[in-house]
């Protein structure tokens, strides 16, 4: 039984867009389909790409919120701005929920889905299961990618194995440099 169809996938979509912004509206639509969206979007508008970028940038405020309370307040504001009622639909052959009105454009659809999905992800997995790559503190080559922690143990801190390895090597070298010369 799938009770949370918008949680993990919507957050992963938002992180994917934040970490690797598409060149055009078609790229955003294609990415949304890759992450499981089945929406049929209203006709394209010249402002869709820029307005969708504003949605993702606003979502990054949620990612960077310093406390669970602040994160919740930002998400509540984003969900209130969506101003759509959840509705049942069978547009693709199976009944499911949409968290949007049928005639909304791409930025409004993704704004609603990402806000609700993020809220569902954080309330089911934990309010601390969203953040920036832990390699972001590395001098010289910090990583600012978003990390959506979907692990069982809740300890994912890096956006990739590459960042985890690079940060591990950096920490090892810093410890080795701090040892007195000749100590092992």
From TrEMBL:
What residue stretches are annotated with the Zinc finger CGNR domain?
129-175
Residues folding into a coiled coil are none
Q: Where is the signal peptide?
A: none
Q: List the Pfam families.
A: zf-CGNR
Cross-referenced Gene3D superfamilies, in alphabetical order?
A: Jann2411-like domain
Superkingdom of the source? Bacteria
Q: What is this protein called?
A: CGNR zinc finger domain-containing protein
């Amino acid at each position: 039984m799938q009770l949370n169809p918008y949680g993990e996938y919507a957050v992963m979509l938002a992180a994917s867009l934040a970490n690797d912004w598409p060149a055009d509206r078609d790229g955003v639509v294609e990415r949304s389909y890759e992450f499981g969206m089945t929406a049929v979007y209203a006709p394209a508008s010249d402002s869709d790409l820029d307005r969708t970028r504003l949605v993702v940038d606003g979502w990054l405020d949620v990612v960077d919120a310093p406390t669970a309370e602040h994160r919740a307040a930002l998400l509540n504001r984003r969900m209130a701005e969506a101003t759509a009622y959840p509705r049942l639909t069978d547009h693709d052959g199976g009944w499911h929920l949409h968290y949007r009105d049928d005639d909304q454009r791409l930025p409004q659809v993704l704004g609603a889905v990402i806000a609700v999905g993020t809220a569902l992800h954080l309330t089911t997995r934990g309010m601390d299961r969203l953040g920036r790559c832990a390699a972001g503190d590395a001098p010289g080559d910090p990583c600012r990618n978003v990390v959506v922690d979907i692990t069982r143990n809740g300890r994912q801190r890096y956006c990739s194995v590459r960042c985890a390895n690079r940060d591990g090597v950096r920490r090892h070298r810093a410890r080795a440099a701090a040892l007195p010369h000749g100590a092992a």
